[in-house]
Fold these 2 entries.
Entry 1:
Amino acid sequence: MKSEYTILLFYKYIVIADPEKLVQEQKLLCQQLGLTGRIIIAKEGINATVEGSTEKIKKYEANLLAHPQFADIHIKRSQGTGSAFSKLSVKVRPEIVATHLEERDVDPTNTTGKYLTAEELHEWIHGTTEANPTSPRLRGAREFYIVDMRNDFEQAVGVFRNSLKSGMKNFRNLPEVLDSIAHLKNKTILTVCTGGVRCEKASGFLLMNGFTKVYQLFGGIVTYMEKYPGEDFIGSLYVFDNRLVMGFHMDDPKREILGRCVVCNSPSEHFINCRDGFCHRHFICCQACLGGVDAILCPMGCRA
């Protein structure tokens, strides 16, 4: 059954002369349309996820694309639930994704990895294209490395097969990735993340630190999953809203569940937050253990 709700995910690195003015415009528009979600605006651009009825989302999208600065913005759409967000938040921030790189910061409008489309990545992996589906499979003929630039708890629930995990607990740990992949400086690297926004700076950061052949997945993992559901990306995709995970064929008993409960190690995609006031670590704990264990230790050793 088709959902009555739609979620839009989009971003763009572009100079915003008056972030406060755009915040007020976006807030008023979303309130008029009854949308919920999270919109971050900075001098460097916009990063947003909004949900609403499909009819109202179409009106919001038309308004966004009519804005001269956003006419070419790439929008990802997914099925909503009507409760993906509990409220609307539209705020000005120093960055649209927090890196805290300071003097090492990257301007994606000047330095960023080459875009690789979902179709091109599929060809890299499988050696075929939709235009020429009978061409021989060339798996292994092209040497390239997928580096996942998401946080470790996101990677715990879903990843591309054979990808390299960044090991980051937070995107602010980006500089720590350099040493772990230093041996790939002259290899072809493809950075991936949820919707693409983190890869804009992550790929540029690699280029600024001596990596020579850096690509980024255009539109992020969500675009690849929508184009090729059930292929190459195993498990589910962590998303930063009340859904927590999204995927395709979620009710298929043969679907591979990558996540594991921290208590019993059984397959699970049920996330909880550590209740420690200084931790708030996000991790997987199955429903059975959540209801049957007195003390759950989060991955950081706190009693959750």
Entry 2:
Amino acid sequence: MKLKEPVPLYPSYIELRDFDFEDYPDLDKIFSSNPSWWLENFNWGKSFLEFTGRNKSIHTYDRFRNEIERFLLWVFIEKQKPVNELRKVDILDYADFCWQPPVFWIGTSNQERFKIVNGYSSANKDWFPYKIQAPKIQKKSAIIDKKKYRPSQQTLKSMFTALSVFYNYLMSDELCPGNPAHIARKDCRHFITDAQVKEVKRLTTVQWQYVLDTAVSMADEDQNFERNLFVIAALKTLFLRISELSERPNWSPMMQNFWQDEDENWWLKVFGKGRKLRDITVPTDFIPFLQRYRTSRDLSDLPYSGDSAVLVEKIRGQGGMTSRHLRRLVQTVFDQAYENMCQAESSTKALKLKEASTHWLRHTGASMEIERGRPLKDVSEDLGHASMATTDTVYVQSENKQRAESGKRRKVD
């Protein structure tokens, strides 16, 4: 079976652990009818992803799977040369390919890789290695021109990082003589030296107030929206990532993760990026939102040691909510806040509410705290940044604001 168009190669980590070609007849045909090095390279990728899934987060597994899958598909279909024989010039060819892949490699939405057909996992014909989407602000019905696809600088960096880690893994098993991805990175012509003023993706104080007021109003009118209000307030006030509120295979956030120290300070224990546990300070201002959410669930006013209630319960069924469901809760509030602000102010002033994602709330909360004068070190630790320099680079905009203010006074005459 000659492979002319890309097909998914690897399932989720849970399914990969029990992978058997008998369950994937499409893949079985591909690797049984092509050169033996195809199967060898596939197994190298499989071994690397099993290692990643076992030792890293699900997010890291998914990210590396996307990159290694694309790379191997290019190796099989386009380059037709084994991974261990590739050199710097080949990796630069791959970077060119990633910069402008053929349109039949590009999809316009997220799709599952495999579908169950007659009891077997079959490749989903609607899945593609690359994805281009219309900006969130545009209507869903907008026509998308796949020829306009270009990866962001961050996407390119992620690609080189994944390939470099993959080659290091192969080198450690003495399967490859070197790491061409590491060597090629500095010569990639698509990288741009960035000296721009960084724009923090956040809401203004007024926009945030509309979001909060909208969430409170919705919860006051219908108790079902107490969950939305709690999630909105937690993401912004506690600087949380959406994943830190969600149910995951290796972590289930519970109410007992809120705890009080001997000085009656409240903290929240979260399982964050890099598989690290950290404790976040919980401000007094947040406690009423926690209390009203618990009351809506017929729980006691405040959490206690051993409180096994899930942090954000599912709408239907048992257990916590996934990141996808949590994003829907936030989006519902964003959409209504946008409508409210358009009516009261203008669509121009409300525009960012149309563009905003859940992560904007984390940025909004941290930026506002720094502007209020809270020590950068304290904000950095609550954010879970490994280095205070990261917080300084992303959030501190005071010098740019001064520069912009002085720039306004320049004269034409």
